[in-house]
Design brief:
It is a single chain. By secondary structure, the protein is α/β, with parallel strands linked by helices. It contains 5 helices and 7 strands. It has a single domain, classed as Oxidized Rhodanese, domain 1, CATH 3.40.250. β5, α4 and β6 form a beta-alpha-beta unit. InterPro entries: Rhodanese-like_dom, Rhodanese-like_dom_sf.
C-alpha cells in the first residue's frame, strides 16, 4: 500500500528542504484570519516565490473547493512535480492537505509537524511549539 503522503517534517527539516531544494514550495493552509493575526512564515531567504497561501478551509471550517486549482495556480502541478510542504496551525489541516495533494498526483507532499504555533500548552495558549517557536523566520502578514 502506498503511504497517504510523503511524510512528516519537523519545522527545521522543512526549512532545510526549502533552503536546499530550489523547487520546493511551502504552502500555508491556515485561514486568512490566522495569517493576519498570528503571522506567516518568511521564506525570503529560501528564494522568491517559495510560499503560497491557500486556505484549506474558511474561518467557519468549510472546505475550500478550489484548493487543487489554487495549488496549480501556485505552480504545484502534476506536469512539473516539486516538493510541497504543507503547514497549518498545529499540523492537522496540513496532513489532510498533504493527503489530498498526494491523491491528486502532486508532490512529494509533506506535513510540518506542530505547524506554525503548535497545540495548546499547559498554560492554555499556543506558541510553545511549531515554526515560530523553533526560531524560524516569520513576519506579520
Amino acid at each position: 500500500m502506498t503511504a497517504p503522503y510523503a511524510g512528516d517534517l519537523t519545522p527545521h527539516e522543512a526549512w532545510d528542504l526549502l533552503l536546499t531544494d530550489e523547487r520546493a514550495v511551502l504552502v500555508d493552509v491556515r485561514t486568512e484570519g490566522e495569517w493576519q493575526t498570528i503571522g506567516v512564515p518568511d521564506t525570503a531567504d529560501a528564494g522568491e516565490g517559495r510560499t503560497a497561501f491557500i486556505q484549506w478551509t474558511d474561518a467557519f471550517g468549510r472546505p475550500n473547493p478550489a484548493f487543487l486549482d489554487e495549488l496549480a495556480d501556485a505552480g504545484v502541478t502534476t506536469e512539473d512535480p516539486r516538493p510541497v510542504v504543507f503547514l497549518c496551525r498545529s499540523g492537522v489541516r496540513s496532513v489532510a492537505a498533504a493527503v489530498t495533494a498526494t491523491a491528486a498526483g502532486l508532490g512529494p507532499a509533506y506535513n510540518v509537524l506542530t505547524g506554525f504555533e503548535g497545540d495548546v500548552g499547559p498554560d492554555g495558549r499556543r506558541g510553545h511549539q511549531g515554526w515560530r517557536a523553533a526560531g524560524l523566520p516569520w513576519r506579520e502578514a
